Every structure is written in structure tokens, then in C-alpha cells.
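Appendix B, Record 12. Input sequence as logged:
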Amino acid sequence: VKCSVVQTRSYANYGFTNLNFKDWMSDKDKCLQNIKNRNVNFTEDQLDNVFNLYNKKKQLEFDILQTRKSRNKEAKSSAKQFSQHTDTATAPTSDQQDPSLSQQQSKAKDIRSTLQRQTLELSQIESQLYTEAKHIPNSSSPHSPIGDESSNIIIKNSGQIPSFSSSPLHHTDLCTSFDLAEFDQAAQICGNGFIFFKNQGALLEHALIQYAISLILSLPTPFTLINTPDLIRPHILDACGFQPRNTDPNSSQIYTTAPPHNLSLIGTSEISLAGLYSNTLLPASMLPLRLLGYSHCFRSESAAGTKNRGLYRLHQFTKLEMFTICLPEQSESCHAEMLSIQEDLYQALRIPYRVLEMSTGELGASAWRKWDVEAWMPGSQKYGEISSTSNCTDYQSRRLNIKGDRGGGKKEWCHTVNGTALAVPRIVVSLLENGQRNEGKEIVLPEVLGKWMGRKEGEEIVLKAKEGRGKGLHQISGERSFYFDAEEKDKIRE
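Logged structural output:
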């Protein structure tokens, strides 16, 4: 089954004509209250400006239509008069000029000038309108509690929080003592927020990705695996709703390349996957369309504190993202399906977690409803987010021009749903900190990863800290400790 491509207007105002201005204007108070509930820095004056710009746009479109009608009428009249003058009996001599023909030419010129001015003005109004209107967020689910982070509701707890005979170690200490990652040297050459996974740490990253892909692709509801580009045009990013709550352009968390390239590094493959189906008309028979995206992710966000040091908040990391395009009546079941998949993944990895119903103040611009999954992290004695899943209803499809075709001429905006399958660094944090044993001298990892970590099926995966390790890349007698020991190599060969 093939989908058809729908032509759009310029990149600058990508999808802006599809925004639901009429809904916003029909109930301004409701729209304004939703903006406040979602903690978006967008004032009533700005909303009024959007409505005024929209009315100007509609008036200009009407004026342009009338001007074009006048142009066409004059063109027909001029053609008729010119045809009459081509008759030899009435044609003027070379030294004569028909006054009526001259007047019509002058009038046609004025009409062309008016049309050019109106078209330019419309383009400027449209640009201003989209610049302002893109900050208006999606509507909110009645299930989303109104308020900030403190209003989030815990709707489920799963797994047993481990107990330790002594204070559990932080994952940065475990990474160092087990020689799983390089922090200090990464900071020297890349800056803070970057790491090198190495040895069993590098193997663990690949094992997690392979495990998640294997599980998701074996589901009864098939997903299509896609390796996406890491760079994308900024208008796709805008259309997906990746904008700061603050309208200050300097508050963006997006890395952008310098001119003349003008590309943005993606924060999630959701952006690339949504863009892949922009300007498409999808037959209802191929919906829901389930995609699994693999990519590197880049975020310029920074944060201080014990919880955020080490692997928890990186500028670059590897992630698997689920993304579904569906009909409106399918989106809530697809949303619940994604949460179920996330829970299956984390339960098999023996991660203690809880599920939260996120408040309106915690919803991104595109999300109508969002659930977060937080894992227990003993090293910081806190829960930390490891995934989220959001129902974006028609927010993204309107801006990306994605429609479903039910047949018989009935077309409507699709809904989009997204969810993290597995973000590697935070899963590693949870596995290391919850799996530590014997006062941090051993780490036990889930058996489901054994296939990709050189272990036999059902064999327990136990990492052991070894003497001489964990001193840093250049501190072991000048020797780089990149390699597995003989016992580890034998297991991998097997």
C-alpha cells in the first residue's frame, strides 16, 4: 500500500495554514487558560495579536481574490478591444493612439501593482502570524492534573527496591572501578556532558539496543525499524513542537549548525520519523503505522547536582524511539500500547520503576497527554526519568501536513504518538546502581542481555571490579586500559 505526497507551501511557514485558529478564536478564554495551565510564557496580548494577524490574513486573502477577478476581467476586456483594433477598417495609423486602449493598459498596470503589494503584505503577515502562533501549545487531556511538577500523580509502582548492607555507590564510581566509561578525558576533549563507553560498558550499550530491538520487532503488532539522520531542517523541528517554554531564542536546547548549512541536531528520532511522513496522505488501511527509530540524540541542556552528574544528563546519547501515526480514534489505545511495551522492557531488565501521570505544566508543546516512567537510582537515592510516552493528537500532523484517507473523499488529520523505548545512559545508570553487590565489588546484570554480552543462554552476567582498574585513562602507568582481560575475551569468543 502506497501513500501519496501532498505539495505544501514554503519552508518558512511550514504547515501554518493548518493550525486550528478557528478553535482558538471560538473560545479565547479556554485557549488562554490552557496556555497558563501549561506554564507557557505567552500573554493575553500576544494571543490577541495572533487573532488580529489571522483576521488581517483572511481579509488580505479576500482582497487578493477580488483583485485577481478584476485583473482577469480587464484582461478579457483588453483582449476583446485589441481584437477589434486588429480589423484593418478600424485599426489606428502609426501616428495615432486609441485613448480607450491606453486607459485599459494603465488600469491593468495599476491592478498588477496592487496585486504585487497585496501579495507581499500577505507574505509578511503570514510570517508574523506563524512566528507568534507556533508558541500556542496543544490542548490538554482532562486526565492531566493541572499544576507544576508537584502535581504529577504516581499511577503505578513496579519492582522491588534493592537493599544494601552499606551505602550504594553512585554509577560514576562504579563506571570508574569497573573501567566501563571515561569521564575526565571526555571532558577534556569534548567538554562536560560527554562520555566514552568502553570495555564491558561499550558492550552493554550495544546489548541494550539489540535486546530492545529484538523484543519490539517480535511483537504481534509490527514495528518498522528505521535508522534516522541526526541532522534535520529547523522547520521540521518547529513543526514537531520542540520549542522552549520561554519565547527567548537564547533559551533553546537545540544544537544548530552555522550558516550556510542551517541544520539542527535532533534531540530524538521522533523528529526525523515525523518529518519522514510530512506532506503525505496515508490510506486508512495502513494505519496505525508503527515505527522504531534508532539515532544519536543531542541536547544542550545542562543541570547541576548529584542526580545529574555522570551519565544522567548528557549532551549526546543513543536512543531507540517508538513513533506511531494513526487515525484519531486509535491514538489513545496506541498510547497505552507504548506504555505497555516500555514496562515489558524494564521488567525484563529487573528495573524498579514507577509510572506518573504528568501535570499540564510538565507537558511539551505537542503533548495532549503524557506518562513518564521513572527508575529507582540508589546512587542518588531518588527516582529518575528513564522514558516518557506522549499522545500528541493532531498537533504535529497539522503542522507537517499528514492526513489519513478513509476513502470516499473523506480525509482527516492523523494523530501521532511517541514513546522512548530505551535511552541508553539512564538505563545503564539504573542497571549498574541497582545491580551492584558485595559493597560495589560486583555488578549483576539481567540474563536477557547475555546473548549480546558473550554469555551463554541463561548464564548469569556478573561483572567484577579488578585491581588496577578505575584510575582513569592515563593513570595506570601511562597504559591505556581499553581491553578486556583474558577471561572476558574467552567468554566473548564462546
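Confidence is low (pLDDT under 50) at residues 7-12, 470-484.
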